[in-house]
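Me: I keep going back and forth on a fold encoding question. No explanation is needed for now; the record alone will do.

Assistant:
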Amino acid sequence: MAYPAPLERLIAAFERFPGVGRRTAERLAFHVLRDPESRGLSRAIEEAAAKTRRCRTCFNVAETDPCALCGDEAREPDRILVVEEPRDVEALERAGAWAGRYHVLLGALNPSDGTDERHLTVGGLLERVRKGGVSEVVLGTDPDAEGEATALYVLEALDSAGLKVKVTRLARGLPAGSAIEYLHKGVLEDALEGRVLLRDG
């Protein structure tokens, strides 16, 4: 016997989340039915969707545009750290390891999940560098195959656009195959301190 239609719709909604299969979706759906407090999830989703936006400068998630980081006069405006996702910005901010600005690519090159060049915000980065005032672009993509390919793509895009700017990459002290969002504060600080020069613009 199938579940009631409203429950099936809830299970199907959970299944749309990355990494959530049918069994996990069922467990989450039954948890919502058992725990009245978890029913606030729908309100939280609606509020997040209504009140968050992408910063037009750095593409991070924020409540305002420009975001608080781009609007912070105390940050170094001439250095841009390029990361894959907003959660990478959050990890670096928690570590207190970076005083410059950010640029969020909104992904990494990964043909297997359908992410290619047109899905990334590289055009926005080129525009920021083109406007002037940028002395260094730090490539802070994850140290995995997708992150390395993405870093190379960004470097080639800067070269193709004829933009003469110093480009560095986070130091190889980052554990291979790891994601920035899960790294310890000390690892992030060391990686930023020991970043390597790819080109002196």
